[in-house]
Amino acid sequence: MILNEDNYIEIINSYDIKHWQNLLDLIPEIESTKNFGEMAGGEKDDKGVIQMPYYVEAPVVMKFPKLVEQSGALISFDYTQWDDGWNITGNNEFDFDSIDIPTKCKLISAIIRIDRFSEGSLVDAFESGLILKILQSINRQLHKQ
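RESULT FIELD:
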C-alpha cells in the first residue's frame, strides 16, 4: 500500500509494533551484511556490444522496498522539493530519534524513489548506515510507546 501526503501521518501513527515487525526483522540482517551491492556490466559481450553498468544488490537491499510498501510505510509525495529531507540525509550526525515515525517513513520513501532515477542510491544508503539508523530509531521509538 502506498500512502499519500494527505493522510500518511494518521495512518502510520495507527500502526502497532507488530505491524512493523517485518521491517524491524531486517535490522540484524543489515548489521551482518558486509556488501550491499556492487557494479556489474560495462564489458563487451560475445557480440562486441557493451552492456551498460548496473548495480547487483544484496538480497536485503532487494527486499527492502517491497517490505516498506507491504508495511504501508511508502509515501507518495514530491521528495525533490522536501528540503528538510535533504538536510537530514546530508547530516551524518543527525539524531533520528528527534523526528517522528511518519517523518522517518518519508525519508525511507524518498530514498527508495531516488533510486529509481539514480541507480545505486539505495545501496549507498545501506552502505552509509542511513537505512540502519532509521530502522533502529523506529524500533527504539516503538518500544517507548
